[in-house]
Each structure stands twice: as C-alpha cells, then as structure tokens.
Amino acid sequence: MFSAIFSYFVKDNHYMSLIGIIVFLGVAVLFSNNKRKIKPKRIFAGLALQFFLALFVLKTEIGFKFFSAMAMGFSRIYSFSDAGIKFIFGNLVDTTGPWGLLFIVKVVPIIIFFGALMSLLHHLGIIQFFVKMISFIIRPLLGTSGAETLCATANSMLGPTESPLLIKKYLKNMTESEMLVVMVAGMSTIAASVMAVYGSMGIPMVHLIAASIMSIPGSILISKILVPETKVPETAAGNKFEMKKDTSNVLDAISTGTYDGLKLAAGVTAMLIAFISLMAMADYVLLSLTGYNLDSIFSKLFSNVAFLLGISAKDKNIAGTLLGQKLVINEFIAYLNFVKFSLTDRARIILTYALCGFSNISVIGILIGGIGAIAPSTRSILTKFGWRALLGGTLVNLLNAAIAGLLI
Questions:
Q1: 57-102 residue pLDDT tens
Q2: Which helix (H) or strand (E) holds 55?
Q3: CB < 8 Å & 24+ apart, contacts of 72-79
Q4: Rounded Cα distance, 177 and 70, in Å
Q5: CA atoms of 95 and 106, how far apart (whole Å)
Q6: What 8-state DSSP symbol labels residue 236?
Q7: How far is Cα 283 from Cα 288, in angstroms, rounded to an integer?
Q8: What does the pLDDT look like over 138-164, one tens digit per residue?
C-alpha cells in the first residue's frame, strides 16, 4: 500500500501539487493581518469542500457526467447566438471559410447574447434560486454570514460588479473580513457570459464550470486567512434578505441585459486591441534594450509557480508565460494564447483551473470603482485591501489548479 501511494505521488509530479497546496496556503497565512484569529476549523472545512468538488468532477463518473452535461448545456445555449450573429454578419460566421475564425464576428457577440440571457434569468428569479441553493449548502459548513456567502456564490454566475448589487443594502455595514470575501470572490471567478466565450474558443467547459464553483469555498477560505473575522457580521444570525429585481418586466430585462452585454463586448474588444498592441510595443522595446520579450520574462518569473501546480518541466515555461499574462494583463489574453500552444492534456486541465479567474491588476480598479459607486462608504476598505484581494484571488486560482493537479 505504501509503495502504491509513493508511486502515485511520484507519477506526473503529484507530489509537487501537494507541495503547491501547502505553499499557497502558507503564503496566505504569511500575509494574514491577524494570524492569531485564523480559525483552523473553517480553513479545513473550506479546503475539504474544494477537494470534494474536485473529486466529484475528476474522479467520479457521475460527477464528470454531471459537469459535462452542464458544459453541453452551455455549449448548446451559446450556439443559439449563431442565429443572431449570422443574421448580422452572414457567411462571415462560417469558420471554414478562407477568412477562418473572425474573433469580432464569432466570439465577441456571444457576450451580448449572454448579457441579455443572464438579465432575463435574473428577472425570472432563476439565478436567485440557484444562488440561494448553493449558499444554503455552503454557509453552514463554513460558518460565514448570509451576505458574504450569497455574494461569493453569485460570483460563479455574475461578474465582480454585478454580484455585490444583490447585497447592496448590506455593503455599508459589512466587516472588513466580509468585504475581502466580496473582493476575492469577484477576482477568483469568471462570469457566465465570459465563460461562454472561453468555451467557444476551445477551453474545456467542464473544467471552467468546476473551477468557478470550486472558487466559492476557495475565496472564503483564503479571505478568512488573509483577514480573519473579528466582529459579528450583520447577517451572521441568519437574517433574511431578498435579492430584488432591478427590471420591471421581461422586455425591460432583455433590453437592459443586451445593453449591458454590448458595453461589456465593446469593452472587451477595445481592451484586446489596446493590450495586444501595447504588448507588441513593449515586446519591441524590451527586445531592443534587453534581448528579452514579455513572454520570456513571464516564463522566468512564473515557471516555478507552474511547477508547484504539478506541471511537468516540459510545459512549465509555457505555463509560466500564461500565468504571467493572466496576472499582469488579464485571463482573456492568457486564454487566447492558451489555445495556440501545444501542451499535454494534464497541463491543459491544470492551466484551465489556474487561469479561470478575473484576478489581474486592472480588476482592482474595477472593484473599487464598481462597488465604491453603489456603496461609497466602503471605498476606504476597498482601497485598503485592493492588493490583498489580488493576492487572494490569485491564490484561490492556484489552489484550485494544484488540487486538480493532485487528482489527475
């Protein structure tokens, strides 16, 4: 038995994944602002829940089939967007043509469609139902307040500025520990609208969904290490609160969601043009002055982090490049490049988890601007914990990836 366990840990760098889990948790403890108040029971519960979710999808047939069914559902839903895209762009939507895949035609419009769909589902109360159901399971296990659990859960479907709207009236009275959960959850997950885009690009959807759900307990786990709870939250005793609709009828929900999706799609398009162009310029300047480009710098800085995830020496430099792009630029750029590289199946799965989150430098400003706009009194806490939240979101994504690496 001992030899079998030993062989398993040696095989495929499983032992490095285990070391990575310990290191990432250790980093969180190192940067904790109150180490004495860390509650080991809550930490073990959060980690156990992450492991359970990972085991369910990676090691059980029923779990893999369940998440695969969800992935197929997503794929079927975003395939419906082809009807609207084809009506506007005609044959340009056909990726078999001489022009190949036109990102602006085939991928970006999906965001508009999903913006309308998510708004409609929110108006009908479907999103609220799933959020409450997951929150009902997680909250007793982790001992968290109603407001922070609800927001952390909602982030697995909504964006980092949409989810806090569900708990808008509670934000001003939330403790610092609760606010960090809100911020880290926003950084460590991706919205369903963006997830659909990555799925259409060829990223394995089953693992995108699993990673986003694993980030719910993960964000609470890491947040409660970085800033342990020292006060009694307003909703700790189970006070009931409603997630009110912000649209008057179905047509209002669709039009509002469409407009929001359009703004997001325009923002993504502009961001890609700006960042890819700036990267090209930075590469030229760096290469001229130092002989190194951004990718080589990222590779050197983050390749050892990739090794801690259980990625082999063969793939760790490419993985390090993608991890650096995700942190410094954004996960969109990283996933765009991810599909271009030739990686082993193991590395592809692990990196899908590691890149699945909004944790990058620019999101600090988005959180401060977005949450600060709906609850101005929280701005001082948001600015105080901006970099800590980025660290937390990054650690959650790396922890998810290391757990997946240990199990596959």
A1: 999 999 889 888 888 887 787 778 888 888 888 888 776 677 766 7
A2: helix 40-59
A3: 74/192, 74/195, 74/196, 74/199, 74/205, 74/209, 75/199, 75/205, 77/117, 77/196, 78/110, 78/113, 78/114, 78/196, 78/199, 78/200
A4: 32
A5: 8
A6: T
A7: 8
A8: 888 888 888 898 889 888 877 787 788
